[in-house]
Amino acid sequence: MAAGAATTPGRLDGMPEPKAASFPKIRGALKFYQIASIITGVMLLLLLAEMILKYSPTHVELFAGGSGGLLWFAPVIVGDGCQWFSLFVPGGMGCDLVSAGDGTNLSLFILVAHGWFYVVYLFSVFRLWSLMRWPFSRFITLALGGVIPALSFIMEAKVSREVKAYLASREAAVAAEASENQEAAR
After folding, report:
1. How many CB atoms lie within 10 A of CB 43?
2. 6, 89, 124, 186: least buried by Cβ within 10 Å?
3. Which helix (H) or strand (E) holds 63?
4. What is the pTM of this model?
5. pLDDT, tens digit, for every residue of 30-84?
6. CB–CB of 99/74 below 8 Å?
7. Which 3-state string (H, E, C) describes 65-87?
8. Chain centroid to CA 157
């Protein structure tokens, strides 16, 4: 482990340092993570809005095309077995919600798109996490960014700042060490 690892930004005591040769990969992984976290955060906020519209007393879903026009909200018919608390119980206690819309169900599209893009987000988190050699608890915290609304935006800003500061300090240390080695060789 490199000397001064405990004092470098973004490192925890006892964790191994990333190799200097992996710095370009870390920059690429960081850019990928930044893009993935913003898209995942936006998709999650859209999903949250869709869930509120569908499961709150408004009971509507967003559709494109069909009989309602370009973009429109179709009612969701609540089944007879539904109580106000049914939606909070796993399995719904026999509560059926049936969409009355025709056309393309954009609410369903948002749900599926977020699910698939969350997989891409997890890959970006794994790549950055493994290159930075962070502890597993950090991976879990970053992974939660895709399921807790707005957390991906907060984590993206924090992680970006931290990784950039870490790389800058490590590159400065590597440059200083190379300069010392050149002077010693003369």
Report:
1. 21
2. 186
3. strand 60-64
4. 0.83
5. 999 999 999 999 999 999 999 889 888 888 999 999 888 899 999 998 888 777 7
6. yes
7. CHHHCCEEEEEEEECCCCCCCHH
8. 12
